[in-house]
Design goal:
It contains eight helices and five strands, in the order H-H-H-H-H-H-H-E-E-E-E-H-E. The chain is of the alpha+beta class and 281 residues long. A five-stranded antiparallel sheet has the order 4-3-2-1-5. A hairpin with a 2-residue loop joins strand 1 and strand 2.
Length: 281
């Protein structure tokens, strides 16, 4: 069967016309992509040099942010991390523009959603970055308080993880990412942190309470100015604190003796009548 010239012309128009209209868009998209990638690379180099001149990495070392980034697996240097993140989003933006120029209808809706997502993602990353910076400071404060209270345990690390998790949830929410799984993980972290803190405080405060109770028992027999012996320590009582007694040894050193030692060891007290050492208690 032979096709008529009219049918052949119609088929040719249907095949050639869309292709002919698509070729210029394809060339434009490729040109935008190439030029855009070159610009992005130049911008990334300029940002890298600018951040190095501003000593951004030194700021991270001074503030402890570099330590926090290293603990979460992002490396110590802030400059490559920031520049790499910005370069990624700029590259993504160029790709979105290039694909949009093609004029493919099936891609218009995903492209529009991606364009709207990019600024939200940048805001979310900024918030998470602030959370990582704050988490390092919180960790130091909690570790310092734990040392002062005599509480042992990874309280600082737990506090750091909880702070980062909170900021991640906030950032994900702003970016439009479902946060139900993050909220569940945060609840587990908070529960674990509360349990760990309770156990650590309980064990830590037990020793403190023992020292305070011992101080109350020995307060009637030991006063400042007395020369006493407890175990292998001999010297003059300088003062009595809540959890310890300060003794000046014969060589002038000040010794801080836990009050519980006065309950666990033999203590020699001066004889009030001046007739020699009093019987140990």
């Amino acid at each position: 069967m032979t096709l008529s010239p009219v049918v052949l012309t119609s088929i040719t128009d249907e095949l050639v016309t869309p292709f002919a209209s698509f070729v210029p868009r394809l060339v434009s998209a490729v040109a935008i992509l190439v030029i855009g990638l070159v610009v992005v690379r130049l911008v990334a180099r300029a940002l890298h040099k600018g951040f190095e001149a501003a000593k951004l990495d030194g700021l991270g070392e001074r503030t402890g942010l570099s330590d926090t980034l290293e603990r979460v697996g992002l490396g110590r240097r802030i400059t490559p991390l920031v520049v790499g993140t910005l370069k990624f989003f700029l590259t993504l933006f160029v790709v979105v523009i290039a694909v949009g120029v093609l004029g493919v209808q099936s891609l218009e809706e995903p492209i529009n959603q991606l364009v709207l997502f990019i600024p939200r993602a940048l805001v979310a990353l900024v918030i998470i970055g602030l959370g990582i910076a704050a988490a390092g400071s919180v960790r130091k404060v909690v570790d310092r308080l734990g040392d002062q209270l005599g509480i042992k345990g990874p309280l600082g690390t737990l506090a750091e993880v909880v702070v980062i998790a909170v900021f991640v949830i906030v950032g994900a929410s702003l970016a439009g990412i479902p946060t139900s799984i993050f909220l569940l993980l945060l609840a587990v972290l908070l529960g674990g942190a509360a349990l760990t803190a309770a156990l650590a405080f309980g064990f830590g405060s037990r020793d403190v309470a023992r020292q305070i109770t011992s101080g109350r028992y020995i307060g009637d027999d030991i006063t400042a100015g007395q020369t006493i012996s407890v175990g292998d320590i001999t010297g003059e009582v300088v003062r009595m604190e809540t959890t310890a007694t300060i003794i000046r040894a014969a060589d002038g050193r000040l010794l801080r003796v836990p009050n519980s030692r006065f309950m666990d060891e033999v203590v020699t007290l001066p004889d009030a009548s001046g007739g020699g050492p009093e019987s140990p208690y």
